[in-house]
Amino acid sequence: MPALNAAFRHTDVPRFLLWVPLVASSLTIWIxxxxxIAPHIYMALLTLVVLFDLLALFGxxxxxxxxFVAAPPVYAGVLLLAWINALYVLPTHPTTPxxxxxxxxxxxxxxxxxxxxxxxxxxxxxxxxxxxLLLATLLxxxxxxxxxxxxxxxxxxxxxxxxTHSALIxxxxxxxxxxxxLVQAQAREAALSELAxxxxxxxxxxRRALDDDLEKAGPRPLLAVIDIDGLKAVNDAQGHQAGDDxxxxxxxxxxQAAAQGDRVYRLGxxxxxxxxxxxxPEAARRLVExxxxxVRAIYPEAGASVGAVHRHPHETVAAWxxxxxxxxxxxxxxxxxxxxxxxx
Length: 344
Description:
This protein is an alpha+beta fold. It has helices spanning 2-9, 13-35, 40-58, 61-89, 96-117, 120-147, 151-196, 207-216, 231-238, 240-257, 281-296, 317-334; strands spanning 222-229, 263-268, 271-276, 303-310.
């Protein structure tokens, strides 16, 4: 059962719904040919469905998206033509009872396809319009059969069609509404999670995001903790807006200097962190020095201290971060930015 559920979750349902009429139409053509009871008009409609599905499934990729969208109205048109022919053109043909039953059953595929492709309100309107067309084309037939003395067929068929298919449309609408609400809730949750893991001043990931990433990190990444020097001097001399601008310049510089796959964080205040996938402590020092040199061109008071360490085997995240933090303070205590930061 779990394997079946997993397979269903990975099924491309809209594509699967193209296979259903393709297989059904192909088998029907084969049966009609074998039995030698193949009316030309039914064969033409079945062939149209087969050709449409083959193009939608295996045709040029630039066509497929448009054909997927066009599938429900195309199927609806084919079923409507088959329905009209069964009622008025070939009412006594041996294939007509099967054709009527097929239309009534395959209408459900139209409904499901519509609810998969359109918003709930639009899907309800389309399904209701299609059901209304079928009922409208059925009314003259019902009146004709009623006058011919077949009251059961004339009254029973329209009401069964109306109530059963209306109930199905209502259920599909309910599920579609629930699915849309779930998608919206997931989007809101993702947005809130992103906000909770972002620093509003710099747009970088924050301490919470770093903690989550450290929990998932193996021994290979290098953790670098950076403390910005000179922020207080800039705040005192030029105001807090200038201090914020200083932090944003450091943030932008770290992002630009980091390699693809590396991550940059602002921990709060004047502290940043880097999680570098391929670098060593010396490379982390050079990166910080490069960014600091660029920021100093704007704010000469700026400086930075960095502590960069790899994770020890079986070390906790808290211990790993503490070693990086101590290495940063050791570098700050040296007061010599040209010296490499110690690896704790």
